[in-house]
User: Fold this.
Amino acid sequence: MRRLLILILSSLCLILPLPAAGWLVGGEAGYALTLMDTVTTWPDTWYKPGHGGSAALIAEYGFDNGLSISTGLRYIGKGFWYYHENAGYVRNDYMEMDHFLEIPLVLRYTYRMGDIGLFIGGGGYAGIWFLAQCFGKNESPSIVGNDTIIYDSHGDIMPFGANDNLFEAGLLAEAGVSWNVAEDIRLDFTFRYEGNMTSLVRNTQKNTAHRYYDTMQFAVGCLVAVGGEA
Assistant:
């Protein structure tokens, strides 16, 4: 984490002396695919990739040489499927949807060809895991007697436990196409990869598995120039 902060601060020091082009503000929305495929030490138990959505408010500061730096506030839903089978009987088969608020910091370079631009960028992000939901079958065997409870969940809220790590951070890379539809309005079509560096599980024991949420995101954004051109 310390290396990530040093990298971001070094990037800021390099670009601050450059001539400025101005501010843009706006938002984006898109689709997120969570890349997690883990077999735990429990037999017949898997974590599989899931999907979710994202939405963000963005503030970008551009420079005349094609460089820009952006930040904002992003909501993202990261989902995964949990499957557990015992003696040929499916005990659990549900999707957990975990909701996050993230603050990204991205350095981007854009090569312009008239109103069309091709861009690449990279940076980091930090976030908070604030809600977890369950969709599907979740069986809870009874310790005493034969009173097994089977839940058929449709978005039920899952309480956080002592081993849940609510803080996340990681690195990201992005590429895409921008289109200046007017002098002060720009549309962005972005592919983004977020690599998570913090497990959502802490104090792991013998039969638990770390969970790292890498995501692939496809987003469409609209930015408006403040007192200048997009």
Summary: The chain has one helix and ten strands.
